[in-house]
Amino acid sequence: MSGANFEFYLAQLYKSRGYSVKITPGSGDYGADLLITKNKEYRAIQAKRYSKPVGVRAVQEVIAAKVYYDCNTATVISNSTYTKNAIKMASKTGVELVGRNDLMSMIIEMKNSRAS
């Protein structure tokens, strides 16, 4: 799955959870791949499809996107894990990290809700 396909898949995943989703342009996205809205939540999401742990740069990018797009929350979501520095930065700045295990749980939840 390409990075763009991963972003599209995540958009469908969040739509299944009741979010309105906007996919940002491939370049010039100011650090957000998706912008999602539900109730009073406006969230910037940085999607990382990696084979290695995601580093601190992804957290920095989504912090910038949160400010640029006037979001009230920010998330990095990946099919991988995170480095210690990324975890530390996210913890200090309030960025949510969704890693492989959490993503798998979200996918299972989506498939179960579709089967119902």
UniProtKB/TrEMBL annotation:
SUPFAM superfamilies membership: Restriction endonuclease-like
Pfam families for the chain: Mrr_cat (PF04471)
Keyword Zinc: no
Domain of life: Bacteria
Swiss-Prot/TrEMBL keywords: Endonuclease, Hydrolase, Nuclease
Domain (Restriction endonuclease type IV Mrr): residue spans on this chain: 1-107
GO molecular function: DNA binding; restriction endodeoxyribonuclease activity
GO biological process, one term: DNA restriction-modification system
Keyword Transmembrane helix applies: no
Descriptive protein name: Restriction endonuclease
Organism: Terribacillus saccharophilus
